[in-house]
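FIELD: query
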Amino acid sequence: MNFTESILTALDSITANKMRSILTMLGVIIGVAAVIALMALGKGVTADVTGEISSLGANLIMISTDKDNSGGYAALSMSDVEAISNPLNAPAVSDVSAIVQGRQEVVYNGDSLETTVAGVSANYLRMNNMDEFQVGDDLIQTDLNAKARVAVLGSDAAVELFGDDHAIGKSIKINGVDYEVVGVLASQGQTFIGNVDENIFIPLTTAQVRLYPARTRSGERAVDTIIAQAVSEDQAAKAETQITAILRDEHKLAAKDDDDFTIFSQTALLDTVSTITGALTAFLGAIAAISLLVGGIGIMNIMLVSVTERTREIGIRKAVGALKRDILAQFLMESVLMSVLGGLLGIALGWTLALAGGKALSMTTVVDPLTVLLAAGFAAAVGLIFGLYPAWRAASLQPIEALRYE
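FIELD: result
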């Protein structure tokens, strides 16, 4: 019964000065809203980035030349691709592709476009989840065997060169040589590796002969990057170990020699991105939480004013038998209740801001229930902590002095 009466008395005291109470709670409202909104946006960014990486395949492994340890030469070749593709050498690897690429001027009917032209293996687009076509077909192994002059266009590249015209069967010029368009990819959108919709893909062997003639130290035609796919995400680490052993053997590196290649897995990338975005989200939450402390100082200030205003009331309560703990509990209840009410309003505002901000910025927002609970709990703790001194001061007043107070 005493607890219920304390809540009702606290509500009476808060509603007696509505404007002052609202202004006092404003700091808590803004603090809780800021924490929820910023944490939601931060978690949304994390979800978007990790989703983008995962869509490429979390079990992909990328191998490229380490120029610092390769003497400036390209280190990777099709011999390496074949060695990694051998299931006896790398049982944890399910598929392998390669790419060479650079910027080229592409011309059609007098219109030119400078874009990335990539020479790729026949399975490259499929491995990278880019094998959905508007029209036409993918590159095939026969194209690579024949060093065919054929091309697959990204959706933006097709629009730039052909507009609304049908592109399949027509010829474009790359480095002054004709290539027949055999496919146009569906739009991939902005991906983690850039805007591939602007790219043009041709057979790897054709690109090595006609556009990118770089060779390894041993004289083999070089590739820029080898992409390997682990049997499963769980096997990615084992696949990396097997690939490292294969390449060191292929490149005849001694035990003391550093690798002339680098291996980077998307699993590692996911871990790195999650760590960075998690730290950023926590930082944003910490910045927002500062306003909660400011709100707590506002609550302490107004509670001290309230103690001063109600000094005679405190004296009367003590004179009729109220104990020190009763006065302490009463003022603490007011402080906590004010903070909790501000927290509830802040939750509603923060949730609304998170949804509105996500829609305005075209971003995903993730409102985590745990974040909401932590923000509300922190708000209540702020009311308790900052209300403690005013409550103790009120409880410590002597009845005679309080009754004399004017």
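FIELD: remark
The first strand starts at residue 60 and ends at 65.
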